[in-house]
Design a protein that fits this description.
7 strands, 14% strand, three-stranded antiparallel beta sheet, 221 residues, alpha+beta
Length: 221
């Protein structure tokens, strides 16, 4: 998402546009709950961790292994082709349409099908896109997560069982977290709320907290 242009045109990317807005709104939450701390960590920074590089290389090299797990524990339709759950982002045109191949212990080769760029080098020298399921395992091990909060769509995709199987297969010493899944929210037009489809409604945090207080007084959750 760091290469997705800001649709408002005021920032380089949507990440640069939305992160300051989210940070400003979270200040109200910290005032109400003084014991919490909030830290923003971009997925692109995970590559500096050795465990992340290990799982990323495995994802690129053997996607069939993960496909088998996804098929067994998800009731969603899963495509046979293209069979790819991670890949490099082109260093020239920032596109992902290309071929990423593991050619050495920590070395990958990138061939861009958009601009024709070719590069071979250490895995840590590239930017990547990465499917959220195996990437969750990397984040889980790196940050020692106790409780994971995810949307209800992840639960419907079988992520509860898939995460447990991925831990067992790739990192059995990793602590399995408690997993909380939020309910799916339906928009006024009947569609499922989705930030990726731009079906969203912006709410001010203070208003949400005020409604929560009212609901608690009425013993309504």
């Amino acid at each position: 998402m760091q290469f997705t242009p800001d649709e408002n045109g005021c920032c380089h990317s949507i990440v640069d546009h939305w992160q300051p807005i989210i940070e400003r709104n979270l200040k109200g939450l910290k005032k109400r709950f003084s014991g919490i701390s909030i830290k923003f960590i971009k997925n692109s920074s995970l590559i500096k961790h050795r465990f992340c590089r290990k799982i990323l290389l495995e994802t690129i090299k053997n996607p069939q292994d993960q496909l088998s797990i996804f098929r067994e524990y998800s009731n969603k339709k899963i495509l046979d082709s293209p069979l790819q759950y991670a890949g490099a982002v082109c260093y020239k045109c920032q596109r992902t349409h290309g071929k990423t191949v593991v050619v050495g212990k920590n070395t990958v080769r990138w061939e861009c099908q958009e601009c024709g760029a070719i590069k071979e080098g250490d895995v840590s020298k590239f930017d990547y896109w990465w499917h959220h399921k195996p990437m969750f395992l990397a984040r889980l091990e790196i940050f020692k997560i106790d409780i994971a909060l995810s949307g209800g769509d992840h639960f419907s995709e079988g992520d509860f069982d898939i995460r447990r199987v991925l831990i067992k297969k790739y990192s059995p010493k990793t602590k399995e977290p408690k997993m909380l899944f939020t309910p799916t929210v339906i928009a006024l037009d009947g569609q499922k709320m989705s930030k990726s489809k731009n079906i969203l409604l912006l709410l001010i945090l203070e208003i949400l907290l005020r409604h929560q207080t009212i609901a608690n007084k009425k013993n309504f959750i």
